[in-house]
Each structure stands twice: as C-alpha cells, then as structure tokens.
C-alpha cells in the first residue's frame, strides 16, 4: 500500500478552552492531577492506585494478550510517559497513553481502551484529543504522532494518517514443555531445508549482541534503515516504533532486550530482538513472548526463531504465546516452518501490524 498524502502541512498551537494550561505533571504521584473536561467526562493523570479500575475496563482486550496488567506499574514512573484516564460521574471509563521519543519530536500512542458500556460513543476520540493537547502543552517540541495497530481502521479513518508500513504477525502457542520438542523439530527442518538448498550450516550464523557500544555502532549506521528495510524507517519493538537514533537508545535499554545480528565485522543484513516473556491474562495466566525481525533473508528468520526460543526455553512455564513480527515476505516461509507440531499450534490466521503517522494539530 502506498503512502497516503499529508492532509495538513502546518501545526496548530491553539489550546482548546477546556484544557487546563496551568497544570503540569505533579511530583506527588499519589495526588489526583486534573487535566480537563470535555463531553461530560473529566480527565486526570493516571496514578498507581488506579490500577484495579484500569484492569476492570480491560477485560478480554486483545483476546487475553493484554500487556497492560504487566506494564502499568512501569508506566507510572517511565520517563517522558503520559498516561491519562477519563471518568464519567467518577467512574473510570477510558485510558490513553503516550511516550515521547525521537529526541522530543515524536509521540508514540499506546494503550488506548474504553470500557464496554462506552464503546462506539466517541469516547476514544475524545480522550485521544485530550492526550494530544496535554502532550503538546508539556512537550511543545512534539510535531508528529505515531502508532501501530493490528486492525485496519478502514479508508475513512486511514485517510487521516500517513501509512508508513505493514508488517506480518505469526503467532503460535502451547504449553512450555511442548516448546523443547518444537525447537528440536525446527532444527531438524532447518537442517533438511539447508541440505536440499545446498547450504552448509556454517554459511549463516547469528550473534547475540551483548555489548552496548557494539549495538550503538550498528544502530547508528546511516544506511541501516535501507539495508534492513526497516518499516517506516523505524525499529518497531513490541509495537513501539523508534527511529534508530541515539536519543532512543536509552528507551531501548530500559526494555532488557536480546538482540541478534547475522555478523559482527561487516554490515548486518538481518537483525532481530526479543522482549523477555511477561505475564498476560490469557487462559487465567500465561506468558507472552514477542520477537521482532528486520531484514530480507527469510532463511535467517528461521534460524533466528530457533535462537530466540532457545534463549528463553528454561525460563518459561505454563501456557506460552509467541508472537513474531516480520516483513510480509517472510510470513508464508515462517508459517510452513512452524506447522506440524501437535503441541505448539498457530494462534490465529494471518495478521498485520500497521504503522501509521500524522502531524500533531
């Protein structure tokens, strides 16, 4: 899909009447910070003690794959993170969050949710406008907002954004004890495939990047985006798009990621990373494991999947959901590679990860 034209080139700095311009983030995290009101709703900065109410409106979100129960406490203290809740008659009905990245130029929207009784009533749009305005007030250097989403919003809503890229998602799930057999099966398939293709096992290797300076050197290479065909010119880490620039390295370091590349000395043509497994509500308590892949060589993607799973195989338990985000050209190869195991099955049919952008107004 080609990029959509920009709707407006200018940036509006007008602050709506309802927005409380004199209120900036409070140093007292326990005191409710009023942001403004609109459409019968009042808006506040979220606090740690709002956790239970936030979880109450989040039931069944993402089919049990919701990351927020695990990440909400971290969001409360994360640098340059804004989390806003909306209340109607005192009851929490909506949440939106934004993280300022790219050296203060971009805001990444995350976590939007509305309670079931308020869905379809325009509440999502209202809280997004409140969040945008608050971000512009506190971070006036922000000119662009970005977001990723799994569902296609339709032509009308999509026309409000610039379409940057579309990644494919392959998801599998099973019990932790099944993954050892699954990995063994993948290794056997890989060996068989390489023999039939006339490749040696030593032709392609992946290296775990443990040295911060080495990682920085690779991420700062000016032609990295082109070589790896980074979606929209960004590293999308667990749905969070970040340009490979120095100001974003600290954000990536917070995530405790494991990085892999296909070489050390030459310029890498493939890169992948994973987020440590974390708990999600699925099946009364499961682990979610996310892998992000970038590059053009699907054979390296097969090898990387095995390597990432081996990194965490001794740390997982119970039901495990593995989500692999990759170029669309990898998807069919990876689907065939993963099929056939009775204990680890495909979670859903083909899914996409849309990457969108628009100018702040």
UniProtKB/TrEMBL annotation:
Gene3D superfamilies the record matches = 3.40.630.30
Q: Source organism lineage?
A: Eukaryota, Metazoa, Chordata, Craniata, Vertebrata
Which Pfam families does UniProt cross-reference here?
Hisat_C (PF24066)
The protein depicted here goes by the name N-acetyltransferase 16, like isoform X1
The species this protein was found in: Ictalurus punctatus (Channel catfish)
Its domain of life reads Eukaryota
List each copy of the Histidine N-acetyltransferase C-terminal domain by range: 207-326
Give TM regions.
Answer: none
- Return the InterPro entries for the record: Acyl_CoA_acyltransferase, Hisat_C
Q: Which gene encodes it?
A: nat16l
Looking up PANTHER family in the UniProt record yields:
LOC100145250 PROTEIN (PTHR47403), N-ACETYLTRANSFERASE 16,-LIKE (PTHR47403:SF2)
């Amino acid at each position: 899909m080609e990029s959509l034209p920009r709707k407006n080139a200018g940036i509006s700095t007008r602050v709506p009447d309802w927005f409380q311009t004199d209120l900036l983030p409070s140093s007292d995290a326990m005191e409710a910070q009023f942001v403004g009101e609109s459409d019968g709703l009042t808006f506040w900065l979220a606090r740690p003690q709002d956790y239970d109410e936030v979880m109450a409106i989040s039931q069944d979100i993402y089919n049990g794959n919701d990351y927020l129960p695990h990440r909400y406490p971290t969001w409360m203290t994360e640098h340059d993170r804004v989390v806003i809740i909306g209340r109607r008659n005192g009851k929490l009905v909506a949440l939106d969050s934004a993280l300022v990245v790219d050296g203060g130029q971009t805001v990444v929207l995350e976590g939007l949710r509305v309670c079931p009784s308020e869905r379809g009533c325009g509440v999502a749009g209202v809280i997004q406008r409140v969040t945008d305005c608050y971000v512009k007030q506190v971070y006036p250097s922000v000119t662009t907002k970005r977001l990723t989403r799994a569902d296609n919003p339709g032509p009308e809503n999509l026309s409000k954004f610039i379409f940057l890229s579309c990644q494919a998602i392959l998801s599998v799930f099973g019990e932790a004890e099944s993954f050892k057999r699954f990995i063994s099966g993948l290794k056997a398939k890989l060996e068989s495939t390489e023999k039939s293709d006339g490749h040696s096992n030593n032709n392609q290797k992946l290296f775990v990047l443990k040295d911060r300076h080495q990682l920085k050197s690779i991420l700062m290479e000016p032609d990295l985006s082109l070589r790896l065909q980074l979606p929209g010119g960004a590293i999308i880490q667990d749905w969070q798009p970040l340009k490979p620039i120095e100001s974003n390295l600290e954000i990536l370091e917070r995530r405790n990621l494991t990085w892999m590349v296909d070489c050390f000395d030459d310029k890498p043509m493939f890169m992948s990373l994973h987020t440590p497994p974390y708990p999600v509500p699925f099946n009364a308590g499961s682990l979610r494991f996310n892998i992000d892949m970038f590059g053009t060589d699907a054979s390296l993607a097969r090898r990387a999947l095995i390597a990432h799973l081996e990194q965490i195989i001794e740390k997982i338990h119970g039901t495990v959901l593995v989500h692999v985000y990759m170029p669309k050209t990898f998807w069919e190869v990876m689907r065939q590679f993963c099929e056939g195991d009775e204990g680890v099955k495909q979670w859903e049919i083909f899914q996409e990860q849309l990457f969108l952008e628009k100018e702040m107004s």
